[in-house]
Write a structure and sequence with these properties.
Layout lengths: L4 H38 L9 H14 L10 H14 L1 H4 L3 H26 L4 H13 L1 H8 L3 H16 L9 H16 L7 H9 L4 H18 L2 H11 L5 H7 L1 H14 L6 H14 L6 H24 L4 E2 L2 E2 L1 H19 L3 H10 L5 H13 L5 E3 L1 H9 L7 E3 L10 E4 L1 H6 L6 E6 L6 E5 L7 H16 L4 E3 L1 H8 L5 H11 L4 E5 L15 E5 L3 H11 L9 E5 L2 E5 L17
Parallel strand pairs: 3-4, 3-5, 8-9
Antiparallel strand pairs: 1-2, 5-7, 6-7, 9-10, 10-12, 11-12
Helix pairs in contact: 1-5, 1-6, 1-7, 2-3, 2-20, 3-5, 3-8, 5-6, 5-8, 5-16, 6-16, 7-13, 7-16, 8-9, 8-16, 9-11, 10-15, 14-15, 14-16, 15-16, 16-17, 22-23, 22-24
């Protein structure tokens, strides 16, 4: 039987409208995913979260050094994935700050998570506007932004876990086996990447079990258990759970956006009352319960729960507003309709004025790179071949700047070499695990101060050394063979000149008149109270070569770090940290 022409036209129009709706939905989800990534990239330069510096070191080592660090066994697959992204995109080169480069991968993971939240909402049977609201709230909520911004294994694992739930969530009892097998693979990868995602296996198991195909559930469960056991192991699982506990506490996360924190808890509890939301609610409530265990993987559990919890809150709101909230055979949504609408209105009134300011503050927070950059430059110029102990973030910056990793020891890696200098950053100072010594250079002030300390050297006290330098400097300033500007003479008389400079300069004045133009300061050393160890001697013609050879020919403790002939004269620089006792004859009387 042939259909009338107008029937064909109606069918064609319907197909066209359906295609337009699909394109509109695709454009909407891609726009929301892009918004998610942009917001997180804008905040990529904010200060590191607790434990994030160690994660940065693992990712950098996997990218640039092609190795896993000593403690990378906690989450090796996470570091390999993040390192692969930074290597393929050259993120560490494109970003000035190493942490911002590593966080770029987390922004991409958050965008993928946004797409998966949309797909999961549609697979669950929720309306498109519910899916859009969930993704939009997750994209702009300061709480979710802070959670997804951090360089953490859980942020790498969340897309894998959500992808598994998308594949398993189906209304069909019988279907092809391939989606279920791929879901098991994705869930195994998620658990190996971050063991705390094992809690979401409860949601996956519920989805498979409710189909009523017991043999299928047993096969998939056995495959999942075997994959996790082979890929992870008990010791690595415990280490990974311990790693997930590093970071802000649940109370600190909730304080970022208390309205959303309350909403997601209510949505997760309400989801248990709906057969539609119950599988996801079980997993989210399990993660929230794990987060509250004292000493447990609280920070990591909340990181995984953030996106699906927002989806649960949006889904619960839709079911309450559309009269589809059922408890067993009884419908209770009519009683919830009014309170839900009022609650949504109150929440909107509370968060709309707050979120823009919170997001602007997150994007504006920046760590001052000046102190660490100055210390890095000082080490490169003055201690290029000396072992140095640093924290994880500084280790990345130093190796990234070209320093030999063999000469740069992470404080977290174990016992440092006994002769190693210490780059004392705020993070290392807070740990108090590395004993300091004599402070040789200081960069910055206040809590951001970075110091360079040399190992505690036995010998004379600081007061005795200063007195000896003062007596020797005064004798040199009174010498008729030395010509110097008043500021140079003042430095000599106040004991602010390195004993090696004083000794070698005294030897030079014994053979010829000498004009000292300046005693240039080395950046960072005046703030540490160190004596000047640079000397600019004015010479001309053949005399300049003779003076340069004189300084370059010194041996032992008096050998300069560099001797440079400039247009102004001969610039001599000695290594940092003069040995004690070089000016014994000039000791002040007791």
């Amino acid at each position: 039987m042939r259909l009338p022409p107008h029937t064909w036209r109606l069918a064609a129009d319907e197909r066209t409208r359906a295609a337009e709706r699909h394109l509109l939905a695709l454009a909407a989800v891609l726009a929301l995913a892009a918004l998610t990534a942009v917001v997180r990239l804008a905040a990529g330069g904010s200060p590191a979260q607790a434990g994030e510096a160690g994660h940065l070191a693992h990712v950098f080592a996997a990218d640039r050094l092609d190795l896993l660090l000593d403690s990378a066994a906690d989450a090796p697959l996470a570091w390999l994935q993040a390192g692969a992204y930074t290597a393929l995109t050259d993120a560490f080169t494109r970003h000035t700050a190493a942490l911002a480069g590593a966080r770029e991968g987390m922004a991409v993971a958050a965008a993928v998570t946004a797409v998966l939240v949309w797909l999961l909402a549609r697979r669950m049977g929720l309306r498109w506007w519910t899916a859009a609201a969930a993704v939009g709230v997750a994209a702009l909520s300061p709480l979710v932004v802070e959670v997804q911004l951090g360089l953490r294994p859980e942020n790498v694992a969340t897309p894998w876990a959500l992808g598994a739930l998308v594949l398993l969530w189906t209304p069909h009892r019988h279907r092809r086996l391939e989606p279920d097998l791929w879901a098991v693979v994705l869930l195994v990868v998620a658990v190996i990447t971050a063991p705390v995602t094992l809690v979401l296996a409860a949601s996956a198991g519920w989805l498979v079990w409710r189909r009523g195909r017991r043999r299928l559930a047993q096969v998939l469960g056995a495959g999942f258990a075997l994959g996790v056991a082979v890929g992870l192991g008990a010791s690595s699982a415990l280490s990974g759970l311990h790693l997930a506990g590093r970071g802000p506490t649940p109370a600190q996360w909730a304080a970022v956006d208390p309205v959303l924190a309350v909403a997601v808890v209510l949505g997760a509890v309400g989801g248990l009352c709906s057969a539609l939301l119950r599988p996801l609610a079980i997993g989210v409530l399990g993660l929230l319960a794990v987060a509250l265990v004292p000493g447990g993987p609280g920070s990591g559990a909340l990181t995984v729960a953030a996106a699906p919890a927002v989806l649960l809150a949006a889904g619960a709101a839709e079911l309450a507003l559309t009269h589809r909230f059922r408890i067993g055979r009884h419908t209770g949504s009519r009683l919830l309709l009014g309170p839900t609408a009022v609650g949504l209105l109150v929440a909107a009134v509370l968060v709309v004025p707050v979120w823009p300011g919170a997001l602007d503050a997150a994007a504006a927070r920046r760590t001052d790179p000046g102190p660490l950059a100055g210390a890095t430059r000082w080490l490169r110029e003055n201690l290029p071949a000396t072992p140095v102990v640093v924290d994880d973030a500084a280790w990345v910056d130093l190796v990234r700047a070209g320093r030999d990793p063999a000469l740069t020891t992470r404080a977290a890696a174990g016992e440092p070499p006994p002769d190693a200098w210490v780059l004392l950053t705020p993070a290392l100072r807070a740990r108090g695990a590395v004993p300091g010594g004599e402070t040789v250079a200081v960069f910055g002030t206040g809590p951001d101060r970075v110091e360079v300390d040399r190992p505690g050297a036995p010998g004379r006290g600081a007061a005795g050394e200063t007195g000896a330098r003062r007596h020797a400097g005064a004798a040199l300033a009174d010498s008729p063979r030395l010509t110097a500007r008043p500021d140079v003479t003042a430095l000599l008389r106040t004991g602010r000149v390195d004993p090696r400079v004083l000794t070698v300069l005294a030897g030079l004045t014994s053979s010829r008149p000498v004009r000292v133009t300046a005693l240039p300061a080395v950046p960072g050393e005046d703030a540490a109270g160190q004596p000047r160890r640079q000397l600019l001697v004015t010479t001309a013609g053949e005399q300049a070569d003779q003076v340069a050879r004189y300084f370059a020919g010194q041996r032992g403790a008096y050998r300069p770090l560099s001797v440079t002939s400039t247009a102004e004269g001969v610039l001599v620089r000695y290594p940092p940290g003069a040995p004690a006792g070089l000016l014994t004859p000039f000791d002040p009387p007791p």
